[in-house]
## 1
Amino acid sequence: MAVNSKKIAVYVLVVFALYVIITDPAKAADYVQIGFEGISSAAQAIGDFMTWVADGAKN
């Protein structure tokens, strides 16, 4: 049952994404940009943390 639910959820997500892309490509591009900015910010924060740890966790 869980596998079928997962397949249905993925299918619904793909259909929704295609709907947004087809009906409003500019807004879809904004969503992608927001997503990449979030990933970039997370990677920067992890890098800053690792640098802090490598420096001996000094303030």
Note: The CA atoms of residues 10 and 41 lie 26 Å apart.
## 2
Amino acid sequence: MSTKVWGDKPLYFKQPYRWLRYHAHVNPALFLSVALGVSAPVLLLLTPIRRKYIYADHAPIPNVYPLPDRPRDKSLTGFDDE
């Protein structure tokens, strides 16, 4: 009985698609980490294109409530203003 799980190891230059499938099944963590690492520069290059042609960035969410630009009304009562 053979201890192989996924057949013979394919050659990279002769069968690149089969080579990728082999490593995706045999070493999934390594395969996915390399795939994410390769996709990061591609996504960085696509961001300016997305901003120019597809959609712009959203307006930033305010972090504080805007305060009125006037003096405080002294005639208020209640809520510990006395």
Note: The chain has a mean pLDDT of 82.
## 3
Amino acid sequence: MARRRTTEADADDLPRYFVWVRGLDGPEPQKWMTMDFGVGDWKRALVLAYLELPEDERHLSLSMLARRYPAPRNDLS
């Protein structure tokens, strides 16, 4: 049985979605494992935009993803 290095993360272990949510000071980027909107859909009103990340982008930092996929312009207030 082959061993894998402990520093390697499975694609399933990494957040799958890049999400822009409404924050106190404007849009904030987040990474989510699933698109579960929670009980009563209370999160749905906070989500401005989301994108399912390709496997090769799931390891990128929030700042890199925010530069690649800027916040939606229609709700920058």
Note: The chain is about 10% helix and 25% strand.
## 4
Amino acid sequence: MTLLKRFVLRLFISLKYITANVVDRNNRRIVATSSTVEHSVKQSLECGRTCNAKAAAIVGEVLAMRFKVEGLDQVQVNGIHVNVNKEVEKKGFKNRTKVWAIVNGLKSNGVKLILNDNKNDSSRLISVN
């Protein structure tokens, strides 16, 4: 099985909570997760605001740390694949800033990300350790 799109970012954004998972497509399992539902994450948010851009950025940062703790940043060949356009379409235009906050949280913590383009199925690396 090819490692071309081994790790993929999946986002779940509701009116109350944000959850982000890194999925290993080869083994069909979640390898790292972060959510505003978690007590430790929820405590770090101001006034219990669990679904705004600041909360999304914290989810991205925590996800990046957990991904590194698992040692997966050393194993990955290409990076984590993210289709931002697809995620924004699924979550709605109002959640665009939350999607980008998670992506930027990962990127600012040194995780390699590969943006996948919906239209022509091309990819580009946006962050390198």
Note: Residues 7-125 form a domain with the Nucleotidyltransferase; domain 5 fold (CATH 3.30.420.100).
